[in-house]
Structure formats: structure tokens, C-alpha cells
Amino acid sequence: MTRPAQELLSEVGRRVRARRHEKEWTLKQLAQAAGLSERFVGSLESGKANISVGNLAEVAIALELPLVTLLGGEPARGTRGTGVISLLGLRGAGKSTVGAALAQRLDCEFLEIDKLVEREAGLRLPELFAMHGEAYFRQLEVAALTRVLDGHRRAVIATGGGIVTNPEAFELVLARTHPVWLKATPTEHWNRVLRQGDTRPMKNRPHAMAELKRRLEEREPLYSRAALTCVTSGRSVGQVVDELSRWCQR
């Protein structure tokens, strides 16, 4: 099998698995709904099954998804503006500022996943991490994202900077939203956080800038899986929103 074909099968498997998790189905339940064996569905999700178009169509019907979605096809023109736009990027990427402005332009609701998690937990994020740890935060992150996606046909959401390291949450982002990476230089990330009055990035951390650069480098392959990379360096909020608005109308 050629590498492009294998990559396509892997992506199809990922989308099937993400949708099955959304429906809270077991492998057996999906297999029964699609008229396939549980073993075959497991192979499909792991990217090892060279499934026929007919069988994949049955899986799509069972999952209540268009076949083109499982194949990774672009949505029909003009549909991005009627879906959920998710903004990705490290802290300081401009997700909150751009997200609020874009939502106003598109006349839809703007939501921030981290704030929804804080509301659910009754704690600020630093306290949540200190008291319960990252694993608990990631569980709340998935739950908050799922509620937003189930409850909104149109919205702009700002995700947490580390959502790409939460496999379950990131699969939801890729499968059910139109993700955009707001890309900026390390220096601009740094300066934007400081302009917000937050001095935590450098407090007692002499190598904080080096850590920021390393984190950006590590996560770039994940962020770049977004449907659109929008460079924000040296651009105003209005210019970025103009670009995203045009993209949403395509």
C-alpha cells in the first residue's frame, strides 16, 4: 500500500473513532449498526482495514455523518460560517481577542473552553491543576467541548493552548469544527501575555523564553493540522478578522 493511501486510511480511522466516542458507543455497537464485524471495525479505526466504499458508507450512515466527512473532504462552500470555528494556538496567540471580534462579525456566540472548565470546576485553572492535576482538567476539557459542540450549530470557540495534547479533545476539534491555528512568533506570544498584565510566564523562571520556543516547536506539527493557518504577527485584529471572515464564506 502506498504511503498516501495508508495516511488516508489512518485519518478515516481517526474520524470514525472520534465520532464513535461522541456517540458513546462501543466497538460492538458500531459494528452491529454498520453490519460489520467488531474485529473489522477495530482494524478500521486503527487504520489497518482497506475498507470498500460500500462498507464505509454503511459506517457513515451508522454514525450519522456524510461519507465525505469520513474521507476528509472539504465541506460545501459557504458552510464554514454556519458551523463552529475553533481557534488554536499557545497563550498569547490572540484567540480571545480575535475570537470575540470574529464572532461579532459572524453574528454568533463566542465561547472560551478554559473559562467553561473553570465555571464547571468552580476553580481558576492554576488552582484546578494544583488540587486535581492535569488528567482531571483534560476530562473537564473534553466534557466542556462536547457540550459546546452538541449545543451550537454556529459559534466561535477559543481552545486552550494545550488542547492539541489531549487526544480525545483534539479529535473532536478536527472532526466537528473548522479549526484555525493563529500563528505568532515566540516574542509576540510573550509580549501579548505581558500586555495583559500577566507576569507569571517569567516569574522565577529565567529560561521561560527558551521554554516557550521549545513548546511552540513541539506543538507546531499538531497545530498545523488545522484547516487554516492564519499568521497574526505584525497584523491588526481587524486584518486577521477580515481574513478569517473571507475564509468562512468560501
Description:
The model is unreliable at 74-79 and 198-202 (pLDDT under 50). α7 (113-121) packs across α9, α8 (125-132) packs across α9 and α9 (134-151) runs parallel beside α10. The chain has 250 residues and is an alpha/beta fold. The protein is built from 13 helices and five strands. A five-stranded parallel β-sheet has the order 2-3-1-4-5, sandwiched between helices. It has helices at 3-22, 27-34, 38-45, 53-63, 67-70, 95-106, 113-121, 125-132, 134-151, 167-176, 186-195, 208-223, 237-248; strands at 84-88, 109-112, 155-158, 178-183, 228-231.
Question: Could you give a short description of this structure?
Answer:
The chain is an alpha/beta fold.
The H-and-E topology, N to C, reads as HHHHHEHEHHHEHEHHEH
The helix count comes to 13
Q: What would the principal axes of the Cα set say about the shape?
A: globular
Radius of gyration: 19 Å
**Strand-pairing-aware structural class:** alpha/beta
User: What does the oligomeric state look like here?
Assistant: single chain
Number of strands: 5
Report how far the terminal alpha carbons are from each other: 34 Å
Largest sheet: 5 strands, parallel
Low-pLDDT stretches are 74-79, 198-202
- State the strand order across the main sheet: 2-3-1-4-5
Helix percentage range: 55-70%
Strand percentage: 5-15%
